[in-house]
Design brief:
- The complex is a heterodimer of chains A (279) and B (273).
- Chain A has one domain.
- In chain A, 88% of the residues lie in helices and 0% in strands.
- Chain B is an alpha/beta fold and 273 residues long.
- Helix content of chain B is 41%, strand content 23%.
- The chains are: A mainly alpha (279), B alpha/beta (273).
- Bound molecules: adenosine-5'-triphosphate and magnesium ion (MG).
Chain lengths: 279, 273
């Protein structure tokens, strides 16, 4: 009986401890993100940081183009194959273009490109900053009177924020080409019907929304990865764990942001729809 | 207030500095005044909190309780941005060097210079780097990345980086560990020279007693989170405390010897005669 009580006490204790830790971590995370955003905003107006930003843009943006294009192409191709049978069963296989292009532009292009980036860029950011953290290099930046968030995080955040939308354009583009190549030459759908139906079904709004998501995804990837790198535990294992957590964390945040944005954009669309008809 | 008048030359002051990591008390109520233009050496057994102590001086760690003053201005409660200005007046040599491994030796040394001055003149910058590297015998390594340097070479480049801005106060965490005796003595001479010619205040953490005697105007020994002895070379040589004598002679105590023996006798692996 006494033992049970002891355990019960320790369970409450554990729960309490975990809650306190979680609240603490949330606070640290929010503080870090706020500082990073302020520092990034300031960095945009400081020419001295431009070289740092260019370097990060090269590493984060340019080097990610191939993987993002491959992702996009396969998404388009797989969609074409999967959806064809269903639409052909209804006799409306010519609508395949709308389905593919709309899915790619609105959802699959942005989200899968962002997930790809979370793995490629997020992993590299966390590993780099985590190693700098455990070898005291971040401390060294501070010891020389420089704010590590300004020097290390801001350029990475800016590069991610501005380049993710561009990478999404690449993913969208290749997704469309992949879908086309399977639909028209392989499945034998009429090319004119494919494109004219697509043009009628995909609106400028859809494309804009898809690309606009990129800003949020990019900021989320950089924010989570840099945070994990800055707060990783000691040793090689600590860096490894931080990388895993950064990827899982950014993945979940990307999906959550996507959900919120879909709801928000849908409301925006509904409210501008009447105006659009007038135009 | 009275104390401040008495220690008018104090440039850095610690008042009741206590640092806890969870349950462990690493520094326990330490009060110290470091004099301007003097070299203070901090010694003590491995793990006694020397690194933790000097990290507090530049507020890389915040005290659990107690206060830190620099030029009579309290600094332990400043925010990071205000601390930036304070830190620009200090140089810090990390125990492990902490060179930026994505930058070359040249860029490493210019890092603090570029952060705190507007100099754009490449010829002048080249000259600064050359001079600082020559000081530690590393001229010619400008384009190396830290990964290609030996442990001692990294230490020397890190030292060059710590003094790049000609700071008022330089904090050295084991500057001579990992160097050969001649290099170590060159570092000693360097510390003496900066003190004599530039009036730099140095705080040096070391294990090397020869170095401590040579450069230290004042030697402080830490033990169990407290200051055990505070004096000069003579105080140490004359001290009768067994811990101090053991430490400066590098002699193991009977107790430690015994635990060494036990640990060997315990290791018996089955199947090996
Ligand atoms: N960030 C930290 N978290 C928890 N404990 C720490 C931390 N930093 C230091 N310690 C503890 O503080 C104690 C003192 O560490 P410190 O690095 O100051 O030792 P030291 O005197 O510099 O030793 P050495 O001569 O080996 O460098 C150690 O017991 C260490 O475990
Ligand atoms: Mg140490």
């Amino acid at each position: 009986m006494a033992e049970l009580k002891q355990q019960k006490g320790s369970m409450v204790e554990q729960l309490g401890g975990a809650t306190v830790r979680m609240v603490g971590n949330c606070g640290r995370f929010s503080r870090f993100q706020a500082d990073s955003l302020v520092a990034s905003f300031a960095a945009c107006f400081r020419p001295a940081t431009y070289p740092l930003i260019w370097n990060q843009m090269l590493a984060i943006g340019v080097r990610s183009v191939p993987v993002v294009m491959i992702t996009g192409a396969f998404v388009g191709m797989v969609l074409a194959i999967q959806a064809y049978d269903q639409l052909a069963g209804l006799g409306i296989e010519e609508h395949l273009g709308v389905l593919i292009n709309l899915s790619v532009v609105k959802e699959l292009g942005p989200v899968l490109a962002a997930v790809m980036l979370a793995g490629r860029v997020g992993g590299a950011l966390t590993a780099e900053l985590g190693t700098m953290n455990v070898t005291e290099q971040i401390l060294a930046v501070r010891s020389m009177g420089t704010d590590p968030i300004r020097y290390l995080v801001a350029p990475r955040l800016i590069a991610c924020l501005f380049l993710t939308p561009f990478l999404i354009i690449y993913a969208d583009f290749l997704g469309m080409i992949g879908g086309y190549l399977i639909s028209v030459p392989y499945l034998g759908i009429n090319s004119r019907a494919y494109w004219s139906l697509s043009a009628a079904g995909v609106e400028m709004f859809d494309i804009t929304v898809g690309i606009a998501k990129g800003f949020f995804f990019g900021a989320a990837i950089a924010g989570v990865s840099c945070y994990k790198g800055f707060h990783c535990k000691e040793g090689a294992q600590g860096v490894g764990e931080a990388c895993t957590e950064a990827f899982v964390g950014s993945f979940i945040i990307i999906l959550a942001i996507d959900f919120v944005l879909v709801v928000v954009f849908k409301a925006i669309y509904a409210s501008i729809w009447p105006i659009k008809i007038l135009l | 207030m009275q104390e401040q008048v008495k220690n008018g030359d104090g440039i850095i002051e610690l008042k009741g500095l206590t640092k806890r990591f969870g349950e462990i008390v690493v520094l326990n109520d330490i009060s110290l005044t470091f004099e301007k233009g003097k070299t203070t050496v901090i010694i003590g057994p491995s793990g006694c909190g020397k690194t933790v102590l000097i990290k507090h001086i530049i507020v890389l760690l915040r005290p659990s309780s107690g206060e830190i003053y620099f030029h009579n201005q309290r600094i332990d409660n400043l925010d990071e941005r205000e601390l930036g200005k304070v830190r620009a007046q200090m140089g810090f040599l990390f125990q492990g060097g902490a060179l930026f491994d994505s930058l070359t030796v040249y860029e490493n040394i210019l890092f603090p210079v570029k952060q705190h001055t507007q100099t754009k003149d490449t010829r002048k910058l080249d000259e600064i780097v050359k001079m600082k590297l020559a000081m530690v015998g590393m001229d010619g390594f400008q384009n190396y990345y830290p990964a290609r340097l030996s442990g001692g070479q990294k230490k020397r480049v890190a030292l060059a980086r710590a003094v790049a801005l000609n700071p008022e106060v330089i904090l050295y965490d084991e500057p001579t560990t990992g160097l050969d005796p001649i290099r170590a003595d060159i570092i000693n001479e360097l510390i003496l020279k900066t003190q004599k010619e530039l009036g730099v205040t140095s705080i040096v953490v070391t294990h090397d007693m020869n170095s401590a005697y040579k450069i230290g105007d004042r030697i402080i020994m830490l033990h169990n989170g407290k200051i055990l002895i505070d004096g000069n070379a003579e105080t140490f040589k004359n001290s009768t405390l067994p811990i101090v004598q053991g430490f400066i002679r590098g002699k193991v105590s009977e107790k430690d010897l015994k635990s060494l023996q036990v640990s060997f006798e315990d290791i018996k692996i089955d199947g090996i005669q």
